[in-house]
Request: fold
Amino acid sequence: MSQRQEQGSRGATALVERPGLLSNYVPGGYFDEYLGLGDATDRSVRALLSRIDAMDPDILRARAHDAELELYNFGITFTVYTQKDAIDRILPFDVIPRVIDANDWDHINRGVQQRVAAMNAFLGDIYHDQKILKDGVVPRDLVLSNPNYRPEMEGLDVAHGTYVHINGTDLIRDDEGRFRVLEDNGRTPSGVSYVVENRHLMLRTFPDLMNGLPVRPVSNYGQKLHEALCDIAPQGVSDPVIVVLSPGTYNSAYFEHIFLAREMGVPLVEGRDLIVEDDHVWMRTIRGPQRVDVIYRRINDDFLDPQAFNPNSTLGVPGLMRAYAKGTVGLANAIGTGVADDKAVYAYMDRIIKYYLDEEPILANVETNICREREGLQYTLDNLDKLVVKPVGEAGGYGITVGPRATKEELEACRQKLLDRPDNYISQPMIALSVCPTLTGDGIKPRHVDLRPFAVTGRDTWVLPGGLTRVALREGSIIVNSSQGGGSKDTWVLE
Amino acid sequence: MSNLLSRYADAIFWLARYVERAEDLARILDVNETFSRDSQGAQNWQSILRIYTLAERFREQHGEPTADAVITFFTLDDSNPGSVVSTLGAARENARTLRPLISTEMWTQLNIFYNRVRAMSGDELSEPRLARFCATIKEGCQTHTGITEGTFYRDEGWYFYRLGRNLERADQTTRLLDVKYHMLLPSVDQVGSPLDVSQWNALLRSAAGYHAFRRIQPSGMTPADVAGFLLFHRRFPRSVAACIADVDTQLHELRRSYGLDGGAAALERLDALRARLSEATIDVIIRRGLHQFLDDLQSEIGAVTFDLANDFFGTRPVQAAQ
Reply:
């Protein structure tokens, strides 16, 4: 790894012997995105490693600083509001890319397509015949009393049977390097703007790193999304008026909304720009009201239409659900998709795939014990000190018991909760995330990463080659969220 | 194709106005520094508070208008919505909502510029450096204008941008003239005195008009000459008449090119304003009272803005077409 046969023309400085940047790099027993479980085998990955190894640490750091400054100046930021001020923050950017070789990508690509197909089949079924409930594959109450289930969608037909037009699948890699699904995001997954902007940034600031490597492009995301949205225009509309609907400039993902509108060349509207009249959706323009055919909405179901859902919402469009039900406007994603990416339903995803597609899951779930089932509960109770126990109804990590780190009292309390309400819990083994070389204050070190590939579905499903790689910048941490010391990397899918 | 959203038209119009306003405010602060010294060298910063009708607000918050306090109030005080930093902040907020529409370069420059001004400390504008601060602001605003000229897509939005910029510029030129009016109420014995002449000279320079003025009038300078130039000269880009003529032309073209019904009320008002500017003579205006004339112009410009908002910016409830 410390060979530096490349870039022989670096002049006099190349003669000074200095240990390579990666000479002390040790993945520490985790699966490594560059080295696997041993050493890199892919030719491009090896080439990339020797380029990184040969870099001057001070120059690398200076260039990394420039890259982050550029993100700030370009306004590729999210806004944090305090009582007094609005502060623009960037998602910290690590300049060492994550690489995915062609075989692994083929696997992910097929696996994500399969998962999206299963989610759409599931949603179509539960909002129509509910066969899967009748056959007892998924418990009836788990679906029908789920807060994300929308009875308003019952019996409604959606174009091409597609409910989840934009999907983000959170993947991790276990100790042996197998990709596993940690979570599905079938409502309004965000992060794709960083995928594309991170690439632009790398091309501007580190063209030498990518030079000559067969990295698949990501810049056609907007075009693919536009095609999918055209696919779901109301019948008879050939050149649909498409808009992106945002909660507004105060939303922390506002930059992404801008990005999406720009990439597609369509207006970025807010609820106040739209009205429903005569069961059609119109937007307010300088020429008066104009018909809107397709809405890519980045507002959750709850806030989308105060007449149908949360009556206190001021972000939404009164009457939108009515127009949607009449088929005069296409919505992406459809209403009521949250029931398919729910934690409780996630546990059944392997079975859902088999039920609708008669296929084995290509991307397996993280092994999950369903405590409402006798075996799952027994196994969980027997192995409490080794498992992570999660309530299914909560979001944001509330109510989780991490067995190996819990005290005796905490384990006992958890046992009691499980016995009282087993149907409210699932359990999973402790997960080890793979690592990737990352620039830290202390040189290049292994840090844990995950991956969120994005799938776009109109008539067919297309998966953006790559995805958002999030990295836990703190040593040892497996929490990749930006609010807790997480950053992102460019993700290179190799041909 | 989508038509321009009303909210976007509104934001473009105000983006242009706020940037123009920040530039002109820097010009006014610059010229006021020259004016505020009377023949004894004493300072008077009250006039600038008066022309923006902020004297009372200032007194409530800050007490006596000392030079330093007034300068801070108009430059870096973010609690004053009329300060340079607040004005640029408003421009940036509008640009933020317009990011899907404007060029990346427009956004980036304004974002960096605003963040730079916001990070400035009072040390950077204590009096010897006020001129440099004003130069920085002018330059940042002009960079914006240049980038916009060179990169902004020329559809309906471009018209609204020019409407905003020129309406604001016309308004601000009337205020620039008003500073002088407030400083030296025309007392007969002072007209033509060395101090008086040097101040009119400075006024012209602050509007970047001194050399243009000299081209049409190689020697001599009376207050009437300068006021007439700033109000009526057709070829000077900051004169009220030139700005109003441009607004009138742009609005005609916008309506024709895009087949818009809106804007009729504003046009009627603009045509009348244009006629009034071409018929008036500076001597008559000065005799009747320059301040009153400037006041009238300002309220007419406000009325044009109101008409545009009514027709284009969605301030009226929308009725869906059938």
Q: What stands out?
A: Chain B has two domains: 1-153, 155-315.
